[in-house]
Automatic annotation (TrEMBL):
This is UDP-N-acetylenolpyruvoylglucosamine reductase. It comes from the Bacteria. Belongs to the MurB family. Cell wall formation. The keyword Oxidoreductase applies. It catalyses: UDP-N-acetyl-alpha-D-muramate + NADP(+) = UDP-N-acetyl-3-O-(1-carboxyvinyl)-alpha-D-glucosamine + NADPH + H(+). Residues 16-189 form the FAD-binding PCMH-type domain. Pathway: Cell wall biogenesis; peptidoglycan biosynthesis. Its cofactor is FAD. It comes from Muribaculum intestinale. NCBIfam families: murB, PRK00046.1, PRK13903.1. Its EC number is 1.3.1.98. GO terms for molecular function: FAD binding; UDP-N-acetylmuramate dehydrogenase activity.
């Protein structure tokens, strides 16, 4: 536990855009977290909890304390049947958790391979990819309740999961809970979700394993997504949420855009890939300053090397305006803007 002042956030966020926090501290246990929150220096200051820094855009210096979880550990607990409960500390890299599960021969989260960020952030965001959401596998989340000043265990019915939504984002609870660990339900049985197009070919394989699915997901993601650790490719992953529209709206869109991709939802609405909308609004490779729409996946905005936050903000606004003008759909950021 080390409280640092005037801390440069660029190295600990995947956009790698300069901003400073008044204070920054990392903790590896609930006790350390409680001790930090009790420090006289941070009383009355705003508090922001950050995992891998893969879903934040700091638009200015942060006037409070940024807390980083370093809570580690991955365990598997099996019962008499095929179900296994896998638990990871909030500070673990999400993809490390997925890899551990696949190497152990457990199935259920392999489709979520290579999603950047920490385990704690995954629970907050309800991450999803290739037909699977974390909510599909969640068993419980252990969190520190800052109001009650103790650990609590939150069950699926309490987590209020929706598309990129959770209890942790609701106004009445935002900032109250700090994720300490996440437990998911896995299985040793061969139960895979191969509904996403490029994964369907795997159904023909004999003795398919979760590691096979993981490798294919990684191939797909490598082929079209930039690596935030490479200079000139800093990014926060999917910048916008995929919009959901009514059946009537979708039918009107199909009349003008017959090849528009879509994913029917159980409630009758339709999800449309935001990346497709951005590309077909003519924004592939669009730039503002050092920020660019990534040509191989238009859902991603990259820092080409010298972007400042205002470049990303301006480009995201341009994307929203053009998609609204072209399709009548307002895109909403998945990335969290921190600042003015």
């Amino acid at each position: 536990m080390n409280l640092q002042s005037n801390f440069d956030l660029a190295p600990v966020t995947t956009f790698h855009i300069r901003a400073r926090a008044r204070y920054y501290a990392s903790y590896s246990s609930v006790r350390e977290l409680a001790d930090i929150l009790a420090m006289p220096e941070v009383q009355g200051l705003p508090v922001l909890h950050m995992g891998g820094g893969s879903n934040f855009l700091f638009t200015c210096d942060y006037p409070g304390i940024v807390l980083h979880s370093a809570v580690s550990g991955i365990t598997f607990a099996g019962g008499d049947g095929p179900e296994v409960l896998a638990t990871a500390g909030a500070g673990e890299r999400w993809d490390d958790f997925v890899e551990h599960a696949c190497r152990a021969g457990y199935n259920g989260i392999e489709n979520l391979s290579m999603i950047p960020g920490s385990v704690g952030a995954a629970a907050v965001q309800n991450i999803g990819a290739y037909g699977v959401e974390l909510a599909d596998r969640i068993h419980s989340v252990t969190a520190y309740d800052t109001v009650l000043a103790r650990e609590v265990v939150l069950l699926p019915s309490e987590l209020h999961y929706g598309y990129r939504q959770s209890l942790f984002k609701e106004p009445h609870a935002e900032g109250r809970y700090v994720v300490i660990a996440v437990t998911v339900r896995l299985t040793s049985e061969p139960a895979f979700n191969l509904a996403y197009g490029p994964l369907r070919e795997l159904a023909a394989l004999d003795s398919l394993t979760s590691m096979d699915v993981r490798r294919r997901v990684m191939e797909i993601r490598h082929s079209k997504l930039p690596d935030p650790d490479v200079k000139g490719q800093g990014n926060a992953g999917s910048f916008f949420k995929n919009p959901v529209v009514s059946q009537d709206k979708f039918h009107r869109l199909v009349a003008e855009w017959p090849d528009i991709p879509s994913y029917p939802l159980s409630d009758g609405e339709v999800k449309i890939p935001a990346g497709w909308l951005i590309e077909h609004a003519g924004l592939k490779g669009a730039r503002v300053g050092g920020a660019m729409v990534y040509p191989r996946q238009c859902l991603v905005i990259v820092n080409t090397g010298d972007a400042v936050a205002s470049d990303v903000v301006a480009l995201s606004g341009k994307i929203q305006d053009e998609v609204l003008r072209t399709f009548g759909i307002r895109l909403h950021p998945e990335v969290i803007f921190v600042g003015d």
